[in-house]
Amino acid sequence: MLARRIIPCLDVRDGRVVKGTQFRDHEDVGDIIELAQRYRDEGADELVFYDITASSDGRTVSTEWVTRVARVLDIPFCVAGGIRSLDGARAILHGGADKISINSPALENPALIGELAGEFGSQCVVVGIDSLQDGSDYFVKQYTGDPTKTRSTLWRTLDWAAEAQKLGAGEIVLNCMNQDGVRRGYDLVQLKALRALLHIPLVASGGAGEIAHFNDVFRIAGVDGALAASVFHKGVISIPRLKEQLIADGIPIRS
Amino acid sequence: MLAIVDSGGANIASVRFALERLGVASELTADPTVIRSAERVILPGVGSAAEGMKRLQAKGLVDCVRSLTQPVLGVCLGMQLLFEKSGEGDTPTLGIIPGEVALLPDSPGITVPHMGWNTLTTGREVDLLDGIAPEARFYFVHSFAAPVNAFTQASCRHGTPFAAIVQRGNFSGCQFHPERSGPAGARLLQNFVEGRA
Which of A95, A135, A219, A253 is geometrically suited to a Cys-Cys bond with A67, CB 3.0 to 4.6 A? Predict the structure, then answer.
């Protein structure tokens, strides 16, 4: 049976892993290779590297660190941030990344999803969606990497996800902004609704604070993977303990 | 020398890096002479079957690959191309192993692409799995899959069963990515390199 995936997300700036509150004040937390290997050794099923330099100032992702990661890592990894074109995606995939994730550029130009899927196959095209609750519905936000540029779109989250799937996305990462950083659990209602709508894999992002939240998101929302950043980086949750508990709970997990 | 067929697809570098980690030198090449003289050959590939065949044809490698007599390992799309035909774009493929590759059906709880770590089922000793625990998981990422038949050495199930490791004569293939499957995948590559297939 296919295992549910545990996916740490690392923010990368100029080839280093950083963390920060909001958009500013990034603190260097270490070498990208060392951290990637540490998470791999702890049992991460996949890694996401979010290049915040590239997405914030319009640069493309440097492929130098992508290749360094690909040389040492023996689990799959995805690169997000700053990918706006076929050429940009090609450089990263040829550098050794398994998947690329696009967010705001897909909203600017939805046809890009289909172009990427046609060229490289759907399996390596991930569409990230930043979703914010407004009243009883959820809407897609754009340019969330920079609070001064963040704006609302006219897309309902469910509609945009269905459109992305139709255009050729191979996976959706849903970042539930209401939950982001507050560690009160994933948005199970929204994720469950999206899971029922899509036939491609769905990864939950935003809200993980304790081990039980992972159990909930797999069991109740039925997602394929759960992404988290700060709880792993700050040692709030240890991946080996998390996986041990999920296995004890009867959830299919790679040990 | 181990030759990796340069089929031009995305993330072809990963296989070479995995061999590097094992201390195995390889050459990424589209030169039929180099491929024919290699001790072992890996046929990697991601993307669509039609694109994969088009690239092999453009580089004049279809007959070269078909006529190889040394151990060959197809990985992911590289394995699917060993079969007769792919439902992906109704594409005739290399025809080394009987059977047609078809789209995996999705259903509630079964997402397609089949993406993530899954286990294998074997009914016999499989040389490529030598030294690997039966419950080991491998990393899969694909929407199309090959049928379970007489040439299947190990199968996997995602809604329906499909071929995960195949072999016919000197040609083997795996649907999952050994280069991204942690220590189990590394061991499988080692088994191939050391002639256990």
Answer: A95
